[in-house]
Amino acid sequence: xxxxxxxxxxxxxxxxxxxxxxxxxxxxxxxxxxxxxxxxxxxxxxxxxxxxxxxxxxxxxxxxxxxxxxxxxxxxxxxxxxxxxxxxxxxxxxxxxxxxxxxxxxxxxxxxxxxxxxxxxxxxxxxxxxxxxxxxxxxxxxxxx
Length: 145
Description:
Elements: E1 2-9, H1 13-20, E2 33-38, E3 49-56, E4 59-72, E5 76-82, E6 86-96, E7 99-109, H2 115-143
Antiparallel strand pairs: 1-7, 2-3, 3-4, 4-5, 5-6, 6-7
C-alpha cells in the first residue's frame, strides 16, 4: 500500500526539521502516535531506532519499531518499519520561499498473504486523513512556538 500526504508549512525547512527530530514530541502532532521512545544511544542520523505505540481506528493497538535508514537534514528522513508492519516511511522537506513543502509518504505491507493487502487497502483512506491531520497539527505546533 502506498499513501501520501503533503502540506505547505509557513516556516523554513530548518525550523520544521527541529520539530521532526524531537522524537518524543512527535506524539504531540502525529495523530496515531500515543507515545514515541528512542531505543538507541544515537538520537540523530542513520541507525536511530525508536518504538511507537500506535492507534488504529482511534484505539492504542500495537507497538512498532522503526529505524532511520536515511538522514539528510533538513531535507529527508526515511524510516524502515521493523515490526509486524513492514515498509518505509519518508518525510521530505522542500523549501518554498520562506515556507516548507512537507511531503509524507508511506509504502507499507503486512506479511499476511491476501488479508494483509486487503486490510491495508481498507485502512488507506483513514491513514491518509491521519497523515493530513498530523501535518496540520505540526503546522499549528510550529506556529505556536
